[in-house]
Every structure is written in C-alpha cells, then in structure tokens.
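User: Hello, can you help with two protein structures?

Assistant: Certainly.
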Amino acid sequence: MTYLQLVNAVLRKLREDEVATTSDSDYSRLIGDFVNDAKRLVEDTWDWTGLRHTYSITTTAGDGLYSLADFGTRSKILYVHNETRNTEVLRDSLQNIRRANLSSNSQSGPILSYAIDGLDVNGDAQIRLYRTPDSIETLSVYAVRRTDDLTSDSSEVSVPTSPIVQWAYSYALRERGETGGQSASEQAIFAQQELSNAVAFDAGLSPDETIWTTV
C-alpha cells in the first residue's frame, strides 16, 4: 500500500472522507503522522523479510572504513561475507578492532572482522574492518534496512500494512476519543494481535532465525 492508501484506510475507519493527497487538510496530515508512527513501530518490532537488503562493498587497499548508504541509525547488520575469499567476516567490538589496528603488530591483509564505527556526514553507519584490506575484495553485507518516514503520496512500505493501519487507527482514537463504541485501549489490543500475527507469519519464512542452538 502507498502512503496515501494507508492514510485513507485510517480515515475510513474514523468515518472520515477520503482525501486526494495526504496534505489535503490539517487532519489528514495528522493521520499521516500517526501512519508514520505506526510504520516505525512495526518496522522496529521484527527483522522483516521485506526490509532485508544486501550492501556490496568493494574494498580499497589501505582503507579500512566504509559507509553503508541509507543505513541510518535504525538498521541492523545480520551477516558479512567476503565474496572474494568465500569466508565469513566475523562481528567484533569496535574497541577490539581499534586496539588491534593501533598495536605494534597491526598489519594489513585478509579481512577477519568488522564493527560499526560511528556515522558519516550523511548520518549513515560506517563499518570498520580488521585487518585493513591490502587488495581489492568484494564484501556482501546482509542487513535489515529500516526506512525513513513516508513523505510522498506514492511512497510504499515493505512491511505488513494491516498492523500499520490498526496502530495508526489506535493512535487516532486516542487523540479524538471513542469512535463507534470502540476505545483506544481496545483498539490497541487488536492492533498488537495483528502485529503478533504478522511477525509469526514472517518468522515462518526464516525458521532457522528463531531456533536457539548451543555452540
């Protein structure tokens, strides 16, 4: 569903007229804010299949720091693979990597580990590598990339839309009071159930990620 369709879905539940654009009125803009609040809640609840994204990094000899475009601060790295050497790049703490890079035994060579090292000028996360690459290699960074707020009427979401509509409706009920005999607290319970169901269905696509194993 698009941003406009989500807003209109909430307006219908409120027994309000649909709008041609999300900026049609002060109230439609308010509902748009509730939709974005709900979208953030839904996106942050689970590592949704629809938010999975693969970054491709081509290393440069002597450079151990790379930005992840549009990664923002709400996203998450799941796994890093060195395509050139067909090896896993392990997650480590930034403290360990900095200590290793500053030690007298520090050397460039095959990449062994990575850590998030602050944000770049665009507000996107940077990934620090150890060792510092000594050649051109290709890394695949598998991540969950959560998105910015919706602004355009035609913007689409990549997560289940029913929980977004139900949570936005709940926020709207809380703002305006009871509608059609349903309270905001009752709607919040229904919205949480919708979200729980959506998570369960999506988790079924990656069952290995929800199974704990001993090492």
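That covers the first. Now for the second protein you mentioned:
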Amino acid sequence: MKLIPALAPLAIFLAITSPVRIAHAQGVPTATQQLQLSAFAGGTGTFTDLEGGKNLDITAGVDLTYLRLRLARPSLEVRGSYPIDKGTISSQKSILAGPKVEHAFGRLHPYVDFLIGRGEIDYGAGGFGVGDILYISSTSTIYSPGGGVDYNFTRRIDLKADVQYQHWDAPVVASGVIHPVAVTLGAVYRFDFNPRHHGSR
C-alpha cells in the first residue's frame, strides 16, 4: 500500500501531459500534409530542332513532395513523353527525372525544374543519311532545364503550362547536338493522403 502514494505524483504528471501530447499529435495531420503526390498529363508540342520538324506528344508524370519550406516547395518529378504524331523528319520519345521547386502566389504556382534522362530519336522517311551512313534511330542522354505554372482550378485539380528546353546528342547534325523545345498544356490531379485536411495547398 505504501507504493500507491509514491506513484501518485507520476500518475498526476501523466494525466496532465498525456492529453496535451494526444491533442498535439492529432492536430499535426490536420494542419499540414508533409507528403503529397500528384500526377499530371497533357498534350505536348515539340519543336525537334532538326530540319524544322515537329512532334505532337502525350506527356505524363508524377511529382512527390515531402518537405514544405517557407519560401519554396521542392519535389521530385518523373515524366515521360511519347509522340502520337511523329511528323515526317524525326520523332523523339523520352523519360526524365529530377528536382522541381515551386513557390505559390495565391492560386498560381510557378516552378522551375532540371530534369535528366534518356531519349530516343527515330528518323522518318526510311532513315537520315549522312555521307555513307544511314541512321534509322539514335539514343541520347537528355538534359532538360525548364519551368512553368500550375493554376489551382479546384481543390484537387490544377491546370498546367510547362516549357522544357532540352539538350540531345544527335549524330545526324554537324554540331552533334540539338536543342528541342517542348511546350505542354495539361492538368494535374493531387492525391489526398489525409481526408480531414481541407486547408490550402
């Protein structure tokens, strides 16, 4: 029985602090979402930088955000593009990944990114001849700085405008490199991992 008075101060301390900790733990998820996943898709017009060629592509990708900093919101982005209208000169398909950073101005979320990946060029009209060599296709590492803006259309859906300036190796030109420009218009869907969270993005 002497043990009960000795444990009384500990019991009082736990009774006082436990509700505070529980309330704090319950309050954190409703205040912000540390992890956010979004997916996007759209149509892309690509100026291939090879004899004036153009492609019409489907582009799709995902963004994974874990941290929300005061002035910036960094993400990891993965995207791929596949031509549905290849034109007559060349078609370019790619898969890219890299960091993206955005900053919100109300409903507008401008961002910049730097993506790196792999791409393939298929040359039209039976191949691209250079001297005695006929190139049917070639592959390249791609470096793609770019940026754009997302507009909050609804709580879950954004409208997207995006531009990427790319660096490809291409053996069919004298310089050995081309710089395609890809312009994408599309939409973004943001997944909600916390249904109780209905605050701003």
